[in-house]
């Protein structure tokens, strides 16, 4: 949809409105070197004259669709997924609209290339693929410069969404040090692609605390601090300096913590969540999307949360985060305390079932079972399943093939439609593949996975007829972008439990499996922007209800609120450029929103797409 064809909205006066022209105070190569202003070969004849682009571009004025076709041909010519990932990174550096249009048009194909599993490969090779910096690199040995370094990225009104990682526990591949900047970048790509967060109003950050990855420490090309990870008081002071500086410099920004290590993720979230609008995707996002899949699966199997018996294999950040979201939902539905609700959840980790005899961290303690009542269950996942008879089994262990045929059949023995969710990433670390789970349960299992899998065919009809079952990808991207969008648009002062539960309900209500039990438990990535609107709406309504929304004049009618949300979602379309005088122009118009763009000019980039 072009900007000209977009109907006039009653909310086009809003600061984040996506209607009308874009003000531009730069011209020539400076314009072409600014990714969020550059249209490349699609600049109209009028724009070429008005902005001094004649002679800098080929003569033919092309459409965004033509550019996208050419970009897709270039993408397809790359030899493997990592090369395709690198190509997309280069394209993003040139032209944001074209980059996101290409992703949007080929989302199912490219999603795994810009995110897991290929982004994990890019992160592991960060120092070898590096061409130019993207994002803010903060140094634990230079904590006094944190505020200064962040301040280079804009004025208080310029940043809406910050993703920050310390690189310790990346996508199931562990400590990647400074390469963690790329997970912050990738998550922000998803917020734009899936929820329309304005890409020039985001900030990726890495907190470089060193690394315990010996391979990186021994690599003479490694770009991060060449030292062991800093822990303790110095680490905490560094994180706090980042949070306090970010809040002071960008008071409206929502902070998204990403891929912190097990010992820090929950602790940091618990510390700052009562004070600022923040979110940890590994703890809350994974929990929310998994709870949405569980709720859809229980609905298909005609059960309720109060009937739930949940076993989680893998009691790290993700596993405990899922347990917490499920526990809170059970407590709300049954009107009971969290400790009572936790009795319906069993956590299994390397030592076996977590009991009062197990050495536990703070987040695990509430789920520990009485050791005196757990005889026979401590040693293995199979023994727990045989004793508990759960109806839902979740894997967050990164132990490949942990869900054996015996375990899966034990799950199916006592429940008609077991919900089995092997969620570990990347694909090679899945606890089981959908084909095996469905084969071992005669097609009865309801399956969602942490990475994409093809549909599975089998003789599972009532008459033995072959049926194709689609497998949902239990990916956080169907929930965290919408949560962030809702929080940003209503300028939430905090992100509360009720706002998260509202987000889960928004996703679960759109489950395709509610209408067809051979359909996925969760909406697919091709529908994610519509899902994000629903999630954002529910989050905003919950925030308003709790008095946490600080934005004025938020519509209360659902249809009107949806329009209000959509009007402020960035879309990959070329809006006409409006020439304005540099004096008094906004930093956006003066191409100053990204420090790298304004300082380096990036003359080496290809600008003729």
UniProtKB/TrEMBL annotation:
<feature type="active site" description="Proton acceptor">
    <location>
        <position position="187"/>
    </location>
</feature>
<feature type="active site" description="Proton donor">
    <location>
        <position position="115"/>
    </location>
</feature>
<feature type="domain" description="Malic enzyme NAD-binding">
    <location>
        <begin position="283"/>
        <end position="544"/>
    </location>
</feature>
<feature type="binding site">
    <location>
        <position position="259"/>
    </location>
    <ligand>
        <name>a divalent metal cation</name>
    </ligand>
</feature>
<feature type="domain" description="Malic enzyme N-terminal">
    <location>
        <begin position="92"/>
        <end position="273"/>
    </location>
</feature>
<dbReference type="GO" id="GO:0005829">
    <property type="term" value="C:cytosol"/>
</dbReference>
<feature type="binding site">
    <location>
        <position position="425"/>
    </location>
    <ligand>
        <name>(S)-malate</name>
    </ligand>
</feature>
<dbReference type="GO" id="GO:0006108">
    <property type="term" value="P:malate metabolic process"/>
</dbReference>
<comment type="similarity">
    <text>Belongs to the malic enzymes family.</text>
</comment>
<dbReference type="Pfam" id="PF00390">
    <property type="entry name" value="malic"/>
</dbReference>
<dbReference type="InterPro" id="IPR001891">
    <property type="entry name" value="Malic_OxRdtase"/>
</dbReference>
<keyword id="KW-0520">NAD</keyword>
<dbReference type="InterPro" id="IPR037062">
    <property type="entry name" value="Malic_N_dom_sf"/>
</dbReference>
<feature type="region of interest" description="Disordered">
    <location>
        <begin position="1"/>
        <end position="21"/>
    </location>
</feature>
<dbReference type="GO" id="GO:0005739">
    <property type="term" value="C:mitochondrion"/>
</dbReference>
<keyword id="KW-0479">Metal-binding</keyword>
<feature type="binding site">
    <location>
        <position position="475"/>
    </location>
    <ligand>
        <name>(S)-malate</name>
    </ligand>
</feature>
<dbReference type="InterPro" id="IPR015884">
    <property type="entry name" value="Malic_enzyme_CS"/>
</dbReference>
<dbReference type="Pfam" id="PF03949">
    <property type="entry name" value="Malic_M"/>
</dbReference>
<dbReference type="GO" id="GO:0051287">
    <property type="term" value="F:NAD binding"/>
</dbReference>
<feature type="binding site">
    <location>
        <position position="258"/>
    </location>
    <ligand>
        <name>a divalent metal cation</name>
    </ligand>
</feature>
<dbReference type="GO" id="GO:0046872">
    <property type="term" value="F:metal ion binding"/>
</dbReference>
<dbReference type="GO" id="GO:0004471">
    <property type="term" value="F:malate dehydrogenase (decarboxylating) (NAD+) activity"/>
</dbReference>
<dbReference type="InterPro" id="IPR012302">
    <property type="entry name" value="Malic_NAD-bd"/>
</dbReference>
<dbReference type="InterPro" id="IPR036291">
    <property type="entry name" value="NAD(P)-bd_dom_sf"/>
</dbReference>
<protein>
    <recommendedName>
        <fullName>Malic enzyme</fullName>
    </recommendedName>
</protein>
<dbReference type="InterPro" id="IPR046346">
    <property type="entry name" value="Aminoacid_DH-like_N_sf"/>
</dbReference>
<feature type="binding site">
    <location>
        <position position="282"/>
    </location>
    <ligand>
        <name>a divalent metal cation</name>
    </ligand>
</feature>
<keyword id="KW-0560">Oxidoreductase</keyword>
<dbReference type="InterPro" id="IPR012301">
    <property type="entry name" value="Malic_N_dom"/>
</dbReference>
């Amino acid at each position: 949809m072009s900007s000209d064809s977009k109907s006039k909205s009653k909310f086009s006066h809003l600061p984040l409105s996506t209607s009308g022209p874009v003000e531009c105070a730069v011209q020539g190569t400076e314009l072409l070197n600014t990714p969020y202003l550059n249209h490349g070969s699609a600049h109209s004849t009028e724009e070429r004259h008005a902005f001094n682009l004649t002679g800098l571009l080929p003569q033919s004025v092309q459409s965004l669709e033509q550019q996208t076709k050419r970009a897709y041909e270039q993408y397809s010519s790359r030899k493997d997924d990592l090369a395709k990932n690198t190509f997309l990174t280069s394209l993003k550096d040139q032209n944001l609209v074209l980059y996101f249009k290409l992703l949007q048009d080929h989302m199912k194909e490219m999603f795994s290339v810009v995110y897991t599993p290929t982004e994990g490969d890019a992160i592991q090779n960060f120092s070898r693929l590096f061409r130019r910096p993207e994002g803010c690199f903060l140094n634990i040995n230079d904590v006094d410069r944190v505020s200064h370094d962040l301040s280079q990225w804009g004025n208080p009104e310029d940043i809406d969404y910050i993703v920050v990682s310390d690189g310790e526990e990346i996508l199931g591949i562990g400590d990647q040090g400074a390469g963690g900047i790329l997970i912050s970048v990738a998550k922000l790509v998803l917020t734009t692609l899936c929820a329309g967060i304005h890409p020039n109003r985001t900030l990726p950050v890495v907190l470089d605390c060193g690394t315990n990855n010996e391979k990186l420490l021994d690599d003479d090309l490694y770009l991060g601090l060449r030292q062991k990870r800093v822990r303790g008081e110095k680490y905490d002071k560094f994180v706090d300096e980042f949070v306090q500086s970010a809040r002071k410099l960008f008071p409206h920004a929502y902070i998204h913590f990403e891929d912190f290590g097990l010992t820090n993720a929950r602790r940091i979230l618990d510390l700052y969540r009562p004070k600022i609008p923040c979110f940890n995707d590994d703890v809350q996002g994974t929990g929310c999307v998994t709870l949405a899949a569980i709720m859809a699966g229980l609905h298909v199997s005609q059960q309720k949360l109060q009937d739930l018996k949940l076993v989680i294999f893998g009691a790290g950040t993700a596993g405990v985060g899922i347990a917490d979201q499920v526990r809170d939902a059970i407590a709300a539905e049954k009107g009971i305390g969290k400790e009572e609700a936790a009795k319906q959840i069993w956590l299994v980790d390397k030592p076996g079932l977590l009991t009062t005899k197990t050495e536990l961290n703070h987040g695990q303690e509430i789920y520990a079972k009485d050791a005196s009542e757990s005889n026979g269950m401590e040693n293995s996942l199979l023994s727990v399943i045989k004793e508990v008879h759960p109806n839902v089994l979740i894997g967050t262990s990164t132990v490949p093939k942990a869900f054996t045929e015996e375990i899966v059949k034990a799950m199916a023995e006592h429940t008609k439609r077991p919900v089995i969710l092997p969620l570990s990433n990347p694909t090679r670390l899945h606890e089981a593949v959908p084909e095996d789970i469905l084969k071992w349960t005669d097609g009865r299992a309801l399956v969602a996975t942490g990475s994409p899998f093809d549909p599975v065919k089998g003789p599972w009809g009532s008459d033995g007829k072959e049926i194709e079952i689609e497998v949902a990808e239990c990916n956080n991207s169907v929930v965290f972008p919408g949560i962030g969008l809702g929080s940003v648009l209503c300028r939430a002062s905090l992100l509360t439990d009720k706002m998260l539960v509202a987000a889960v309900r928004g996703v679960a209500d759109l489950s395709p499996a509610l209408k067809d039990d051979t359909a996925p438990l969760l909406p697919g990535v091709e529908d994610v922007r519509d899902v994000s609107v629903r999630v954002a709406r529910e989050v905003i309504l919950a925030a308003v209800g709790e008095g946490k929304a600080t934005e004025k004049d938020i519509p209360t009618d659902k249809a009107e609120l949806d329009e209000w949300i959509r009007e402020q979602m960035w879309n990959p379309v070329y809006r006409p450029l409006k020439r304005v005088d540099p004096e008094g122009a906004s930093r956006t118009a003066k191409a100053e929103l990204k420090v790298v763009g304004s300082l380096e000019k990036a003359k080496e980039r290809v600008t003729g797409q």
